[in-house]
Amino acid sequence: MPQLDRWDGETLWDFAKARGISRRRFLWLMASGGVAAVLAACGLTETSGTPRDLPPEPASGSWFKDPSPLIVHDDGKSLEARLENTRGLVTAKSHFFVRNNSTSLDLDAVAWRLSVEGDAVANPLDLTYNDILGLPSRALMCYLECAGNHRAMFDIVQGRAASGTQWMTGGISNGEWVGASLRDVLTLAGIANNAVSVLLVGLDTESPENGFRRVLPVDKALHPDTLLAYSLNGEALPKDHGFPVRALVPGWVGSSNIKWLGQIVVSSEPLWTRNNTGSYVFIGDDYPPEGEAPGKVVENQNIKSALALPWPAELPAGLHRLHGYAHSPHGPITRVEWSADSGTTWRDAELSGPQPQYSWARFELNWRGAAGDHALMTRATDTAGNVQPDSVPFNEKGYLFNQPLPHPILVKNTGGA
Ligand SMILES: Nc1nc2c(c(=O)[nH]1)N[C@H]1C(S)=C(S)[C@@H](COP(=O)(O)O)O[C@H]1N2
Ligand SMILES: [Mo]
Q: Coil, helix or strand for 246?
């Protein structure tokens, strides 16, 4: 397999020319078999045992996965993860949270096409699944988090409920993803220098805006780690998570990670859709309007931490080794502290295990609980110096709640101990 380290920034034609393909043959290959045919002619074999060979997953109501290990919200449209179901660093697909604006789609990877179009591309494309699989791939460990993760805490902690899915701590999961760089596809399409906005559109026509969509500014779209992902945790992308191909936008709110991707529009004008005007905007007294949005558009996630325990938790009296997860889009977690006295005194938890870029960090702590009601708080710091704030201002849609959570724990004496 030839080294592909010069792929970035090259067009497919430059790539093929450098490998002795004539212009005429290149055009014929593109017309007959698309990108995959060109790559094959360049001596790049197609991925063997393509994920579409996997058996279909069983359907369970509107879900392909069994919803019972998860917390069901929104009349069955959202499944919240239980952090305590994950011991290690990666969330199993059966425990991975789901957020849908329609029901999960059952797409045929052979019939599936991804169109790339708009006034800021020179060569509009219609790519197949094999075209995407044939591109150089990247593997990333990356957490995916809904902008509304911890939203219920506006009500529980601040006493003022925000609208939307009342996520507790499980609107997040951590996975290992493989995909092609969106940048390579935009390069193949001949993205123009004056491109400003890249719109990603899902094929779920039942969502509130005919195809769930999100606009990325061109610099985020061209970041090599912004992926067209087709694999989660070593298998084909599960249907509930966007099979055959979804966007993966590290660090950005969950809604940018468009599932069942069908269309990419590259525009020389800033684009506005429901998901950067009506939704995913901070609305409140602290947030003045920006562009066509009534407040600040939510892009990056923020630093948070949570214990991997049911809310509320019930534990027997005695010494417990507890674990949890902390994450920040701004760099690795350098410290997690915990407090059993409402934040008066803090002690360091242990960061346990590796923390690949874009992954959450796992932490552990020893806590001895006597019978009675307790609240344990955790507070994370990242390498850029961000710390979870003591208090966050209210916003109507309840995005990015990240003050330390007073996790309720009821300790019971068992068997006369
Ligand atoms: N096509 C499409 N993509 C979508 C959504 C959707 O409803 N339709 N939901 C978004 C939201 S709000 C979130 S938080 C993430 C959730 O990803 P997951 O269901 O794989 O966990 O997907 C995003 N991508
Ligand atoms: Mo979300």
A: strand
Q: How far, in Å, is the centroid of ligand 2 from the Cα of 78?
A: 9
Q: What is the pLDDT of residue 250?
A: 98
Nearest alpha-carbon partner for 242 in 227, 252, 253:
227
Average pLDDT over residues 218-247: 98
Nearest CA to ligand 1 atom 12: 255
Per-residue burial over 309-331, b if 16 or more Cβ lie within 10 Å, else e, is: bbbebebeeeebebbbbbbbbee
Q: 67: helix, coil or strand?
A: coil
Domain boundaries, the chain: 9-49, 71-297, 304-412
In tens, the pLDDT along 11-28 reads: 678 778 877 888 888 888
Choices 3.50.50.60, 3.40.50.2000, 3.90.420.10, 1.20.1090.10: CATH for 71-297: 3.90.420.10
- In the chain, the amino acid numbered 304 is K
State the CATH class of domain 304-412. mainly beta
Please tell me the distance between residue 324's alpha carbon and the centre of ligand 2 in angstroms: 21
Measured in Å, residue 256 CA sits from the centre of ligand 1 at 8
Atom of ligand 1 nearest to the CA of 147: 14
Q: Based on C-alpha coordinates, what's the Rg of the chain?
A: 23
Question: Quick one: DSSP state of residue 145?
Answer: E
pLDDT given at position 149: 98
Evaluated on CA atoms 382, 386, 392, 393, the torsion sign reads negative
Q: Is 144 a pocket residue for ligand 1 (Cβ < 6 Å)? A: yes
Q: Ligand 2 centre and the CA of 409: distance in Å?
A: 28
Task: Please name the residue ranges forming H helices in 112-239.
Answer: 129-134, 152-158, 182-188, 218-221
In sign, the C-alpha dihedral spanning 16, 230, 174, 198 is: positive
Q: How many CA atoms lie within 13 A of 80 on its CB side?
A: 22
151 close to ligand 1 (CB < 6 Angstrom): no
Q: What DSSP designation does 188 have?
A: H
Rounded Cα gap, residues 132 and 49, in angstroms:
15
> Which pLDDT belongs to residue 269?
95
